[in-house]
TrEMBL record:
<dbReference type="GO" id="GO:0043714">
    <property type="term" value="F:(R)-citramalate synthase activity"/>
</dbReference>
<dbReference type="InterPro" id="IPR054691">
    <property type="entry name" value="LeuA/HCS_post-cat"/>
</dbReference>
<dbReference type="InterPro" id="IPR013709">
    <property type="entry name" value="2-isopropylmalate_synth_dimer"/>
</dbReference>
<keyword id="KW-0100">Branched-chain amino acid biosynthesis</keyword>
<keyword id="KW-0012">Acyltransferase</keyword>
<comment type="similarity">
    <text>Belongs to the alpha-IPM synthase/homocitrate synthase family.</text>
</comment>
<keyword id="KW-0028">Amino-acid biosynthesis</keyword>
<keyword id="KW-0412">Isoleucine biosynthesis</keyword>
<dbReference type="GO" id="GO:0003852">
    <property type="term" value="F:2-isopropylmalate synthase activity"/>
</dbReference>
<protein>
    <recommendedName>
        <fullName>Citramalate synthase</fullName>
        <ecNumber>2.3.3.21</ecNumber>
    </recommendedName>
</protein>
<dbReference type="Pfam" id="PF08502">
    <property type="entry name" value="LeuA_dimer"/>
</dbReference>
<dbReference type="GO" id="GO:0009098">
    <property type="term" value="P:L-leucine biosynthetic process"/>
</dbReference>
<dbReference type="InterPro" id="IPR013785">
    <property type="entry name" value="Aldolase_TIM"/>
</dbReference>
<dbReference type="GO" id="GO:0009097">
    <property type="term" value="P:isoleucine biosynthetic process"/>
</dbReference>
<dbReference type="InterPro" id="IPR000891">
    <property type="entry name" value="PYR_CT"/>
</dbReference>
<dbReference type="InterPro" id="IPR002034">
    <property type="entry name" value="AIPM/Hcit_synth_CS"/>
</dbReference>
<dbReference type="InterPro" id="IPR005675">
    <property type="entry name" value="Citramal_synthase"/>
</dbReference>
Amino acid sequence: MSDKETLTLFDTTLRDGAQTHGLNFSLEEKIAVVDILEELGVDYIEGGYPGANPTDTAFFQSPRTTRARFTAFGMTKRAGRSVSNDPGLAAILQSASDSVCFVAKAWDYHVRLALGISLEENLDGIAESVGAALAAGKEALVDCEHFFDGYAADPDFALSCVETAYRAGARWVVLCDTNGGTMPETIETVVRTVCERVPGSHIGIHAHDDTGHAVANSLAAVRAGARQIQGTLNGIGERCGNANLITLIPTLKLKAPYRDMFEVGVTDDALADITVLSRRFDELLNRAPDVHAPYVGAAAFTTKAGIHASAIMKEPETYEHIPPEVVGNRRRVLVSDQAGKSNLLSELARFGIQVDSKDPRLDRLLSDIKEREAEGYAYEAADASFELMARRVLGTVPTFFDVQSFRVMVERRHNAIGDLVTVSEAVVKIDVGGKTVMSVAEGNGPVNALDNALRKDLGPYQDAIADLELLDFKVRILNGSTAATTRVLIESGDSAGHRWFTIGVSPNIVDASFQALTDSITYRLMKQGVTDHGLQVAAE
């Protein structure tokens, strides 16, 4: 049995991360983020504020996690109301959450100015809110807002907020550096003092990144005794963001002294997928991944030509702080293709494709990948399209259907009752099962019309795609000229809960969309084990 202590990871991407400038999660996007977080292996997923808006309310109508504790966020009870007569508190307690995280004022200035109540009333509100959560059968957490500012102003009151929450039964009391302005030395000193009053096994840290120290502040709190860390995927959040879990997790698992002292719920296998998960999340947000991000950035293990290039290929461990494969990244020596082939073999093995390293088709596949990446493809977030491309080069994908042509018409007109409407109509002509089929369909926009037309009549394959659904559609313009290249990422799913991502790139948005759509259908047919019904298999 390990004698290491447990560190708990609390993700607040869907709540605090949702405060990011210009970001609004849809219900489907929230569900997709939960899938990423569950795959990563965090312990808590804070999903939002039920009752605050329709999306969060709908999200909390049913359980959304299988491993992590599904957590609702909300305020402590309103001053002057009982816990049974507070609609906001009721919405939180009636949600389908496992836990409730209450935000509470820990700065005396805010209590008097913002709440307009006495310090004693504030403490009573914390205790009564925790008690109400426990009575509802939920685990209680308390986020002490602006704790470090409050501690600097009145340490006794700030500490009394922590102690009150703990004595009331809160599983975790979280110290928030809400404005992100506290330095690591102060964090460590203050948290150590807190842990003399309340066990560190009940203390968490929530750090913002306004000085670029959120990760360092989180680690400082751990050194001082805190045993829960709150953060977000890729460090998103209001203003400058939150502590970045994608940076913290590899540090905790791989770097001394943390790796020798603590266990986290993220497995080695999940750690090996963290680069893919980070980039998948960025694609979900429709933003370019940070190439310089620690551990997972495309440049994190890249060396240009020069004195290090040849040495890295011979003794990479002397030039890299960790093996890039441990976090799912790869070494890039820009003057050599050797590292690319080894990484390609690793990726193929992940899809269950076994290829001899001397197979000449690998060189062709590697060349195709490099050429497509130069055109704008990004396969880190589109595994389904990558697997299809690899299998096509290796000759293992049947030609289920062949698209002869397609056409899309968008018409803006007045309907029969005089309303101005926009109607999209698509025509797709395909060869399937030795027959030429032409299908016409309307849709809510050109992409939806194309999707409906393409899937309208696939003959012997129709049953295999009956429950296929287009879940999300994202467009990114890769350059700003009038001849801009467009990248389209499509997320598809089925009734069993499987999800996959496909990609298309073209100067024409409709063409890029159609590439991603045809890949989605082909991938579904391949994964269903559908045969080609007499059609020829793609040539090697």
